[in-house]
């Protein structure tokens, strides 16, 4: 007795990887190992740490505020890797904020320094 209708599911492959490992990374996986997801997490793209700005502010403008910026910037990667996406974003914003404060502070000190020497120079003549 011949049956022309195969049983349901016969000949269909429910696995889109055709026998490979499950695709956890979101990239095409043609039977290889799972691909890690290096892209954006649930919080979006990884925020910039602003570490370079913190270092430049520390070296060129205002040491105390630059150090605070560096400390905040170094927390971004660790918070992101722990899955605290909101904390990483906040640390990035704090690092940027302290770097800006350091730049403003450095400019103010430089202007006051120049004014001081102009006043002292004018009074000595």
Helix content class: 55-70%
**pLDDT < 50 stretches:** none
Number of domains: 2
What does the main sheet amount to? none
How confident overall, as mean pLDDT? Answer: 80
Give the distance, in angstroms, between the N- and C-terminal Cα atoms: 121 Å
Classify the beta-strand content into a percent band: under 5%
Summarize the helix and strand pattern as letters.
HHH
Question: Structural class, from helix and strand content?
Answer: mainly alpha
What is the count of β-strands? Answer: 0
What does the model show?
56% of the residues lie in helices and 0% in strands. With 125 residues, it is mostly helical. The chain folds into 2 domains: 9-38, no CATH class; 51-124. The longest helix is centred in the last third of the chain and has 40 residues, at 85-124. The protein is rod-shaped, with a radius of gyration of 29 Å.
Entry keywords:
125 residues
Outline the fold blueprint.
Layout: H1 51-60, H2 63-82, H3 85-124
Helix pairs in contact: 1-2, 1-3, 2-3
């Amino acid at each position: 007795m011949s049956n022309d209708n195969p049983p349901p599911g016969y000949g269909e492959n429910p696995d889109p990887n055709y026998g490979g490992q499950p695709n956890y990374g979101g990239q095409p996986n043609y039977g290889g190992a799972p691909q890690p997801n290096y892209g954006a997490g649930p919080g979006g793209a990884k925020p910039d740490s602003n570490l370079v700005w913190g270092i430049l502010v520390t070296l060129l403008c205002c040491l105390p505020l630059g150090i605070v910026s560096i400390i905040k910037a170094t927390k971004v990667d660790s918070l992101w890797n722990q899955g605290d996406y909101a904390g990483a974003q906040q640390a990035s914003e704090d690092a940027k904020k302290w770097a800006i404060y350091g730049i403003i502070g450095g400019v103010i000190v430089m202007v006051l320094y120049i004014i001081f020497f102009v006043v002292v120079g004018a009074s000595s003549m």
